[in-house]
Write a structure and sequence with these properties.
Blueprint (H helix, E strand, L loop, with lengths): L3 E2 L5 H6 L5 E6 L4 H16 L4 E6 L4 H6 L7 E6 L2 E7 L4 H7 L2
Parallel strand pairs: 1-3, 2-3
Antiparallel strand pairs: 2-4, 4-5
Length: 102
């Protein structure tokens, strides 16, 4: 499955009210490390079983990124039960991304 584009409008439904954990990638098109992480996140989304994956464009959804204190990108946040249970800042390899998930 492809990652879900998360916006202010669908954030509550797709992330906070999700029945399964959600891996959220906060990124921007001009960010080099984001471009390196993006294909890994896409691959994990296709393989997702028991969780879902979403992406927030920090340029388009700055208020949403600010809500979680994001000051550097890429930032990965893992939500479970509406709460952030894990996070990572900067590029990390696939095994480290998967290790963030419950």
């Amino acid at each position: 499955m492809e990652p879900i584009t998360i916006t202010t409008e669908n954030f509550e439904q797709e992330v906070l009210q999700s029945d399964v954990p959600v891996l959220v990638d906060i990124w921007a098109s001009w960010c080099g490390p984001c471009k390196m992480l993006s294909p890994i996140v896409d691959e994990i989304a296709k393989e997702a079983d028991g969780f879902k994956v979403g992406k927030i464009n920090a340029d388009d959804e700055g208020a949403l990124a600010a809500k979680f204190g994001v000051s550097s990108i890429p930032t990965l946040l893992v939500f479970k039960g509406g709460e952030v249970i894990n996070q990572s800042v900067g590029f990390i390899p696939k095994d480290k991304v998967l290790a963030l998930l419950p």
